Amino acid sequence: MSAETCSIESLPTAARITASDELGLYLHIPFCSAICNYCNFNRILFNESLKESYLTAIELEVRKMADGSSVDSVHFGGGTPSLLLPEEVGRLVAACRDSFNLASGTEISLEANPESLTIERLAGYRQAGITRLSIGVQSFLNEELARLDRAHTASDAERVFRTARREGFDNLSLDLMMWLPGQTLVEWKTSVDAALALAPDHVSLYLLELYSSAPLQAQMARQAWSRVPDDDAADMYLDAMERFEGAGYHQYEISNVARPGKRSQHNLKYWTDGAWIGFGCGAHSTRGNLRWHNVSSVDDYVVKAKNGVEVRADQRMRSVEECWSDALIMGLRLVDGVDLDIVETRYGIDVRGQYGSALRPFLDVGVLVEENRRLRLTRQGMLVANEIMSVFV
């Protein structure tokens, strides 16, 4: 198929993504009380005077996009969204409810850092409509937290988690990071076991990725901190997945495990060729064949939104090839893999005909499996996922 524009009209009727499909909404809150030495997200230091202007701007953007579409997930990401007061979170949730049709049981999730969560805030977030908290713990060892410039301790994280449970949150997720500077397999297991002891509903486990100019890079050089070899990092990953599975969790994505019924409804939008709209500075959106992202600067975003000027920095139509490439790459992140029939029906592609010879070496060594027209990675395949996914780029 030629690299024609992937217009909605060019897709098979049964596979078209229309405005009636349930959307995910993402609200980017860029403020942080401190900048972690490894972070490369779009964030700035907290500014009380700028906060109100930013909230007004993001509310204006939400209301400008109002079309009554059905929504089943709202996700506050950052930055540190838990720096917002409950009434401020409630204000943005209300704007989403007024502008879109939030389905019954909509997952409304807030990313949070332990040091910003008090019992009053937790109670307030519940009242504001938050149904899920994603707590950025990263490690349960104080030495590791210090090396990452985190502002909380392990005991802070444990206390906050238990308080959130008492306040009625029945959908709690923890973030953990492995392959940290100086971290051993034994120390990683300590964090995993500490997380298991809290019995969260969902856990995200990430390998630390260091971008080239990250301050942590310089600190590692000064302090002679190193990271374990790749093979040991792979053992960290495999051991953690085995431990969580042994405790009754199900791995459903390369970096995520959950109890039954507790998968991240919002993140599944990204992995299942879904549609979402992002609001706020630097937020990205994909709806059908259309993809866009907002200006990254907080100041630019605020000025443009308040003056009724378009906040999108870039907008484009994806080609058919890009549409199916995205669907295959993101779908392979899921343990269940990607349904080839759905992709082929939606985008009019013969996956095996197009990519069969390039995929054959991975199928032959067992890191990739095709069963019942589903293409999926084995757990060993997840260790070389980028290499396999590069076939579709």
Protein model, in words:
It is a single chain. A hairpin with a 2-residue loop joins strand 9 (250-253) and strand 10 (256-258). It is built from 15 helices and 17 strands. The longest helix has 17 residues, at 48-64. With 393 residues, it is an alpha/beta fold. It folds into two domains: 20-270, TIM Barrel (Alpha-Beta Barrel); 320-393, Arc Repressor Mutant, subunit A (Orthogonal Bundle). The relative contact order is 0.13.
Question: Which helices and strands appear, and what pairs or packs with what?
Answer:
Layout: E1 23-29, E2 31-32, E3 44-45, H1 48-64, E4 70-78, H2 86-99, E5 101-112, H3 119-128, E6 132-138, H4 142-147, H5 154-166, E7 172-178, H6 185-198, E8 202-207, H7 215-223, H8 230-246, E9 250-253, E10 256-258, H9 267-271, E11 276-279, E12 284-287, E13 290-294, H10 298-306, E14 312-317, H11 320-331, E15 338-339, H12 340-347, H13 351-365, E16 368-371, E17 374-377, H14 379-382, H15 385-389
